[in-house]
Every structure is written in C-alpha cells, then in structure tokens.
Design goal:
By secondary structure, the protein is an alpha+beta fold. Helices cover about 35% and strands about 10% of the residues. It has two domains: about 5-85, no CATH class; about 90-185, Aspartate Aminotransferase, domain 1. The chain has seven helices and four strands.
Length: about 190
C-alpha cells in the first residue's frame, strides 16, 4: 500500500500481511525482528528447531523457519506474487501504488459526494484505502449496510450507526464497482 524501507525504519519489530495489497494467498505474511531482539522472541509453536544440531542458521531461523507440519505454499508463492503484481503497471510497484491511491481517492470522493458527506481526511493521509465515517450519513444507513456485509464496523458506540465504510482500491478493481456501491447506497 505504501513504500516500506525496513532498514530505514529501524523498528524493533514489524509484521505485515501479504494477502491484501500484495495479493499473495491467505496465510502469507512476514515478521521482521531487529537483530538485538531475536534471542528474546519465540514462535507460538516450538518444533524440532529448538534442539537441532544444524549450525547453518541462527537460533531465530531454526525456530521460525519450519515450525512443524504445515503447508508452505502461501509463503513460497510470495516472490512470484510480488513480481506478478508489479508487472500489472508499466511503472512497476510504484505505478501500482499510485494507481491504487488514485482509485481510493476517486472512490472516496464519489461516495462522499453521493452520501453528501464532507471528505473526512486530507488526500495526503490516503494510501490505497480510505474510510468514510457513516455517523455523518443519514440515520440507519450503517446498520443497513452492515447487514449486507458492506460496512466495516469500527465501533457501535455511541450509536449503532457509528461505523465506517472502508474503500479498498486494488489494480483488479474497476472504479465502476464503487459507482455500483454508491448507487446501491443511495437507492435506499
């Protein structure tokens, strides 16, 4: 969704899901742990890595790289998925991110216009996703959309209409989908 420089970020811990914006299979994600913290973190399942005599990898990698019987297909598909998604735009990944951001902004603007809602955040705060607070819309809309599986509820406080319409843009989604959503919303 946004450029990520893990080395420049210098985070102690960072994790990311790859099935959303990278479009890899569900279950593919990553965990980056700064070298200084690797001796203190353990996987939730300890397998044969704990006592393996292998000397070709650090303890961190012995514990995390293979945690027993599982299907690594999602993980193994990540390099090809990254390459394939980057090839969808002549500008590579920067082009994909720019196109997704432009679509998120266009969809947000379209939905806000149709719902007669002020744009809730400046364009500079938008990546490939935008949120539209439905507390600003007509009463009952959030509840109706939630029943249809359209709304991402953030909180039901102080009213059941305290929810957010989440706009997620990706290269395989056409702006027409957001126009159909807007039409369904205002058809009420």
């Amino acid at each position: 969704m946004l450029p990520l420089d893990l080395d420049g970020l210098r985070a102690s811990y960072y994790t990311g899901n790859l099935h959303k914006w990278v479009c890899a299979p569900v279950g593919s994600a990553f965990l980056a742990v700064a070298e200084r913290h690797r001796e203190t973190i353990r996987p939730t399942v300890i397998s044969h890595g704990w006592n393996t005599p292998r000397g070709d990898a650090s303890m961190f990698h012995r514990l995390f790289d293979w945690t027993g019987t599982f299907d690594p297909s999602a993980w193994l598909s990540v390099p090809t998925t990254i390459e394939t998604m980057g090839a969808l735009d002549p500008g590579g990944w920067p082009g994909v991110m720019d196109a997704n951001r432009e679509m998120a902004l266009a969809a947000r603007d379209l939905l806000c216009r149709r719902l007669d809602i002020a744009i809730p955040a400046p364009d500079s705060m938008i990546g490939s996703m935008a949120a539209i607070p439905l507390t600003m819309a007509k009463p009952g809309l959030a509840s109706r959309l939630r029943r249809q599986g359209i709304v991402t509820a953030v909180a039901a406080w102080p009213t059941p209409d305290a929810a957010v319409l989440r706009v997620s843009a990706q290269r395989y989604v056409a702006i027409g989908e957001f126009e159909r959503l807007a039409a369904a919303i205002i058809a009420d």
